[in-house]
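thought: user wants a sequence for this fold. calling inverse folding tool.
action: design(structure=
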């Protein structure tokens, strides 16, 4: 029951909170702590390396998604003119909270 209630609160907050944005960092290590809502895009020598974010379910886990060509699994990122990120494919945690969601135009879309 608590997990369901937490999801409801997170969904409600997401509905009214501002869009998530991208924070750019140089290097290959995510900053600690990560921003509460924004995604961190790591660049190393001008190349997109990875994206990091806190799990949006509220569990507090760090999620790091690789963007480098030739690695598996791999994600693509698109950033619109307002700085809102879109990731593909979806993010599906196989451990912990097992959250499954999309990041689309700076919003979390639960599946």
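)
observation: tool returned 111 residues.
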């Amino acid at each position: 029951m608590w997990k369901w209630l937490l999801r409801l609160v997170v969904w409600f907050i997401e509905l009214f909170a501002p869009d998530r944005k991208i924070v750019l960092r140089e290097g290959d290590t995510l900053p600690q702590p990560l921003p509460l809502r924004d995604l961190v895009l790591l660049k190393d020598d001008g190349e997109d390396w990875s994206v990091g974010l806190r799990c949006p379910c509220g569990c507090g886990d760090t999620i790091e998604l690789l963007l480098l060509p030739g690695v598996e699994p791999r994600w693509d990122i698109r950033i619109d003119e307002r700085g809102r990120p879109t990731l593909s494919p979806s993010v599906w945690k196989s451990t912990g909270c097992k959250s499954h969601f999309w990041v689309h135009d700076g919003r979390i879309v639960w599946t």
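thought: summarizing for user.
answer: Here is the designed sequence. The beta strands are 22-26, 39-44, 47-54, 62-66, 76-79, 85-88, 91-92, 100-104, 107-110.
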